[in-house]
Structures are given as C-alpha cells and as structure tokens.
C-alpha cells in the first residue's frame, strides 16, 4: 500500500470521533469502580426472619422457670407410666415408688402427706377434692393434729395444666432439707403436665420425659406430690430417692461458641479474572491458603427436631500471593503492557512499535498475603437427624455480611499487582453443614461442625465466588 | 487545548478531573475501541476499563504533553481490546491461508470518500481483517509485530491484510456503483 494511501486512512482515523453517551459511560465506570449490591431484598428477608427468632428467643428466656421450679408442658406423652411418690415427712425425705399406668393413661396416686389441720378440718377439706381421693386418717397427733392422710386418686394425665402461670403459682417448689416442698393453698385439683428434663438418677444423667402432677387440694399441706411419669425404662418397682433426683429445668435455648477453619476454594479463580484467555497467567499469582473462623450462635429448639439459630461470626480468609511481575515501560518509565504471560509477549507489544526505539523490561517480585475479613450474621434452620447423647443436626441458612473487606494485593487489568483495600460492604452468603453435639453434662456439650459456605470475594474489578469448607469445634451451653 | 493541568489533577486523585478526562477523550478513544473489538458492547466495555486503568496508573505516567498522554491512553485501550479478543485471532488464523499477493487500491476512489465513509468501511471489515488492517495501516506496525501481538504468523498477517484490502476495494467499488 502506498504511503499516500496509508496517510489518508491514518488522517481519517486520527480525526474521527465517535459519539459517546458520556453520562452513560460515566455511570458504567462508576459502577465498575464502586459496584453496589442491588439485591437489597435479600438482606431485608433474613432480617425479617431474624426478628421473630430473636423475639421468641427473648420470650423463651424470660419465661424460663428457675431450676428449682418444676415446669409443665401441657401435652401429655401418649404412652406413659406413672411414678407415684410417697412422702415420708418424718424422715424429711421424699421417696418415690413407681406404679404402672394402665392403658387408660391415668395415674394411680397414693399420697402420704402430713397436715396440720384438725382431723375435722382435714375431713372437710377432703370432701372438696374434685378428683374423689379417698383420705385415710392413719395416725393423729393429739396436739398438733398431724394426720397422715392417704389419698388414692385417679389422675387423668391428659388433663392439661390450666395455664402455665397458674401452674407455676401453685407449684412454688423450693428445696429444703432435700425435700421438695410447696405450700399449697386453695387449689382443689390436680394439675398435670409433662416435661422433658434432665435427671440424675443414681449418679447417671439421662434426659427423659416426665409427667408431673401436683396435688393442690388441701390447705396447709406442706408437701407436694409430684408424680413422675416416664414413658420408658422406668422400673416399675424401682424406688427413686428424690434426693438423687435433680429436676433440672433446661430451656430450649442453646448458646454455642465455635472456632475453626480450613483451607478454602482449592479451585478458586485468581484474584482478578478479567480475561479468560489470561487465566493461566493468573493462576500462579494467588493461591488459597487458610481460613479462620470464630462464632457465637444462639440456637432455639422449635421442637424436638427443628431448630433455628442466629449468630455472629468473624471469618478471615488468607491467601498466599506470589507474583513475579515483568512489564514493559517506555523511555520515560511509563507502564506499557504486562509481560507476564510468555516471553513472546515481550515482543508483541502494541506500545513498542517500530517508531519506538527504546523500552525497558522491568521485573519485580511480590510475595504477600491477602486477607479477606467477614463479620457475618448467620441465620440457619436445623433438622435433628439423631437425637441421643450424640446429637446430629443438619443445618442450612444464609449469612448477612455486616462487614466484608479485603486487605492485600490484587491484579490489575494489566496483570500488575496492586495494593488494594476494599471498602467494607454488606453482602449475602450461604452455608450448609452438619453439627455433632456430645452431651458432656446437663448444660454443656462438645460441638463439632463441618460446614460448607459460599462466599463472595470482592476485588477491584470483580466479585468472585469462594467455596469455603471448614471444620469448627466448640462448646455449647444449654440454659 | 492543553491537558497538562488535567494530568496533574488526575495524579492528585481528583474525581472531577476523572470526569473531565472521560468527557475530553471518550469520543476519540471510542473510535480506537470500536476498531479493535467486535461489537459496540465490547467497545464500550473496553472503553470503561481503559478509563479505569488510566485513572489508576496516571501517577506512573511521566509524559508532559497531550500527544504522549493520548498515545498512552490509546495503547492501553488497544491492549485491553486485544486481550478481550485474543481468542478471536486464533480462530481467524485457523481459517485463513497465506496469500501474499498484494491487492491494488484505487486511490482516486478513496480520495473521494468522506471521513465517515472510510471509517465505516473499516468498522465493517470482518474482525480478523479489521484488526490486522488497523494495526498495519493505522498504527504502522510491521507484520512481524502484528503477528506477535495477535499470536499469529507473519504470513497470516499478510494474507489478512491482503484480504482486508481486497474487501475494502470491493466495498468501495460497490459504494460508487450505488452512487451512480
């Protein structure tokens, strides 16, 4: 091609301007420089879920009954036996003997109680018993008018406590000389309920469901009749010394402390994936290294199988960043193009035209760590797969990033490492995992979690997905 | 209009200067981006990235005149465009056979064309032809340099240039026939 012709093209080329929508261009550039998360509803949704969880957690916490007070659960276990407790006031002990509950799901109650009433008063009160107990005056103390009254009554264990508050008021149990005592005033019926409690029987801790009933029939009775009904394993002839029975009221709220970490995203994309054709060049620049995680989780059991939890976790991901950078600079040292791909690229530079007679190959090495920091608010739903001493739950949920930022190096569009500190941003992530819990004691359990989380890592050009498997260990405390 | 002050303000990281940079150079750089990309969307994308890179690296720019500054920005734009289309070049290379026969251009006809008409002809060339043609004719690279930039052989570069010119000539002839 003749030089004149070339010049025609070159002149037209240099003089040509293409119309550009500057406002649109500026907006697009601004979005690339400061990308925004548009999925705000994804943030609002978990917040909306979080609020009722927090509400119920607080309610549950406030309504919890002190451990000294036996709690009731309105529903009765469908297949129960009954334990009948006989009290021997003279010995300041409460003994329990266990009797079978017949198929009608009613409990036969035999009560030995001491009253301070006169025999006549006692008798009059006896008549008020709605459950038709039969009172026997076995022995009378002439002065104190102490009567050992024996009741035999059928308690319909399906009967629910009239209300939690009423039951709680009626059953002001306190420990005194290892006796469960309760001043029972003017109630005139049996209150029944069931409760899953941790018991310590003969030094062994077990979690069993008990049905509880209180005889609140006679004024001034200084004893409480507690009927323990147990669905399984209760030896029908076994005598339980209540001194050894610690009725521990545990709430549905668990507090968990977890710490752990692992490597992550073994197949992660490089920090700055701007061009698929150059991915190979990036691969050696950054490699996943480790993750570190600390979590506090509040877990609320909705029922035996299902639970929800919220928490706060701090995660730091680290990656080793090794970069041997080589680039071409012009005669003034201006960066022209990166030369990190192959040696051939060194000569294939747009900026090194035949018109340029000077350029310089500049090489530098950078070895550093990148850190990504996350402060998350995870909200998960769990399902209990195994429910015995070793509990196994599967859980899944999302986490709101309260804070997410990076401190380290990234690769520029020209394959040059650049120091970058991204601004904290709010985001959304997902997690799924298995939790194993081993009960160490009534309140404490050892926890082990295997978790898989999908996170997002922001670079100056792109937001990349990170797959983060982790193992966490910790301690759980059940209130 | 000199942009020496603008360069200094960009070095200082002033955001208004960045806006001024975009307003001042976007039209000319868009022409460059359009030549080296296959679609308007790609051209816009490259242009956006180019401005971001310029803003980030302006502190390393040591020139002191507008020509050098624009040349520097142009080189960055072309680099980005070539990176974006690197796979395209390889595809083109596989489909081409070396020819080596130069095709004569009718200078008189070209001289009669307007600036926009000529540029539209260049824009409408197939991707591989267009980039070789632009690098050779508009940027002044040798076939060896072009081959190394695009990852093709020198003979392929030559053959693409020949075909580009042939196609251009055909289009120019067609244009004049239509006009008559």
Strand content of chain A: over 45%
Alpha-carbon distance between the termini of chain A? 88 Å
Structural class of chain A: alpha+beta
Structural class of chain B, by secondary structure, is mainly alpha
- Secondary structure tally: strands of chain A: 20
- What is the overall pLDDT average of chain A? 58
Unreliable spans of chain A are 65-249, 266-279, 340-357
Q: Count the strands of chain B? A: 0
Helical run tally of chain A: 7
Rg of chain A, alpha carbons: 37 Å
Give an overview of the whole structure:
The complex is a heterodimer of chains A (479) and B (180). By secondary structure, chain A is of the alpha+beta class. In chain A, 15% of the residues lie in helices and 47% in strands. Chain A has helices at 3-15, 22-33, 40-62, 119-126, 164-170, 279-283, 343-347; strands at residues 82-88, 93-99, 106-115, 136-140, 147-156, 174-176, 179-181, 189-201, 204-216, 239-241, 253-261, 286-301, 306-329, 335-338, 360-386, 390-411, 417-421, 427-439, 444-458, 463-478. In chain A, strands 11-12-13-15-16-18-19-20 form an 8-stranded antiparallel β-barrel. A 3-stranded antiparallel β-sheet of chain A has the order 1-2-10, with no helix packed on it. Chain A has a 3-stranded antiparallel β-sheet with strand order 3-5-4, with no helix packed on it. In chain A, a hairpin with a 5-residue loop joins β13 (306-329) and β14 (335-338). The longest helix of chain A has 23 residues, at 40-62. The termini of chain A are far apart. The relative contact order of chain A is 0.12. The model of chain A is unreliable at 65-249, 266-279 and 340-357 (pLDDT under 50). In chain B, α3 crosses α4 (66-84) and α8 (127-138) crosses α10 (154-179). The model of chain B is unreliable at 88-103 (pLDDT under 50). Chain B is mainly alpha-helical and 180 residues long. Chains A and B meet through α1, α2, β14 and α7 of A and α2, α3, α4, α6 and α7 of B.
